[in-house]
Specification:
Length: about 150
């Protein structure tokens, strides 16, 4: 059975926003972010482009860096999740479609699971909406393990 995971774009976006909040006096370029994330700058540029489109960051062309457009206590993790288009609304869980209609389970599994899965998605979004980037940054600063 294949395991489906939410794209890493979400955690990378949180990583980027955290650096912007903590490193206020640092010029944050895609190359700078890429070193911390340990990925290619192209990946960073894709994610920052999504954050820009969502109105969370301003991206300066060239080596002038990226800056936050909103205070971090006003950016929820749900805002970030939606900004990077992790999954389209209502599509977090996929239900297999080609079922045997002559079977009681096959005939009804989609309608039964769709209600449960929708409630689960709403619950997850409620949890993400309850945390801000300020919460993440505060926890990062508390857990600083650098020597």
């Amino acid at each position: 059975m294949t395991t489906v995971k939410i794209s890493t774009r979400f955690s990378v976006a949180i990583h980027i926003l955290s650096i912007l909040a903590i490193g206020k006096n640092v010029t944050c370029t895609s190359e700078f972010f890429a070193i911390s994330v340990k990925t290619n700058p192209v990946v960073i540029r894709r994610v920052t482009s999504m954050l820009k489109k969502a109105g969370l960051v301003h991206v300066n062309l060239g080596y002038k860096g990226t800056t936050l457009l909103k205070p971090i206590d006003q950016i929820t993790l749900l805002d970030v999740y939606r900004a990077v288009e992790v999954v389209k609304e209502g599509q977090l869980f996929q239900i297999h479609e080609d079922t045997e209609l002559a079977c009681i389970v096959g005939a009804n599994i989609q309608s039964v699971l769709s209600v449960i899965f929708k409630k689960a998605e709403i619950s997850m979004e409620d949890v993400l909406a309850s945390f801000t980037m300020q919460d993440v940054v505060d926890d990062l600063l508390k857990k600083d393990r650098r020597e």
